[in-house]
Amino acid sequence: MRVAVVQVGYGDGEPVAERTDRVAAMVRGLAGHDLVVLPELWAPEGFAYRGWAERAEGLDGPTMTAMAAAARDAGVVLHAGSIIERAAEGADPGAQGRGLWNTSVLLGPDGARLATYRKVHRFGFGEGEPQLLEAGEDVVTADVPRPATAGDDVRVGLATCYDLRFPELFRRLLDAGARVVLVPAAWPAARVAHWTLLGQARAIEDQVFVVACNTAGTHAGHAMGGFSQVVGPTGEVLAEAGEGEQVLSVELDVDGLDGVRQRFPVLDDRRL
């Protein structure tokens, strides 16, 4: 399974529409991959929470419309990162009545939605996401199609940024059949050591591939961490980015995953 990880770099001075066009062009340039992954909140800006309500949109809004077209043009499955999703008119606004979520979208090579995931763990310790957004409630997996010559579909699990700190979510994704977990993020440079360590820990303890796509640049006064990584099921880092905007391209041996689990059958010894 050939995966591209697009570590988008940006600052406050780049208009959202221009950034959307630029990212769409990057996706189109990655034809030939099975899966392309973008970061969390790359359009509305991960730490620019004061402007989130203004930049919120529906799942058929301008960001996902542009990304669906890019996925179709490239013929790839696209994890389009996340947006601030606004509830459709008349839809349930959530338990706290806010009608806003940090929502990731997985698109098929025809541009259709394969899955959506509303971020379960909201970062901010009472500010930012917890103050503005609803919490997601669902554990989400989806089957990513591969060319017929490449083998069966691959089940992926969806998580977002701060979710990395909660291993119980990844255990539930494992139990739902995930072989690869996709983690878009807007993780700051101040805690980037945690980012790399936690991504490797989640891969090791659940014997899954972790595809972790972070943001680069500086926005809303926060320097972003970069260092996107793709981690194998034994903890080996298969590819790692630096601090700036960068695209990683890596082959995942998903068909060899069962062999890894058989050679070191730690999951068979679970008791809780």
UniProtKB/TrEMBL annotation:
<dbReference type="Pfam" id="PF00795">
    <property type="entry name" value="CN_hydrolase"/>
</dbReference>
<comment type="similarity">
    <text>Belongs to the carbon-nitrogen hydrolase superfamily. NIT1/NIT2 family.</text>
</comment>
<dbReference type="InterPro" id="IPR036526">
    <property type="entry name" value="C-N_Hydrolase_sf"/>
</dbReference>
<dbReference type="GO" id="GO:0016787">
    <property type="term" value="F:hydrolase activity"/>
</dbReference>
<protein>
    <submittedName>
        <fullName>Carbon-nitrogen family hydrolase</fullName>
    </submittedName>
</protein>
<keyword id="KW-0378">Hydrolase</keyword>
<feature type="domain" description="CN hydrolase">
    <location>
        <begin position="1"/>
        <end position="254"/>
    </location>
</feature>
<dbReference type="InterPro" id="IPR003010">
    <property type="entry name" value="C-N_Hydrolase"/>
</dbReference>
<dbReference type="InterPro" id="IPR001110">
    <property type="entry name" value="UPF0012_CS"/>
</dbReference>
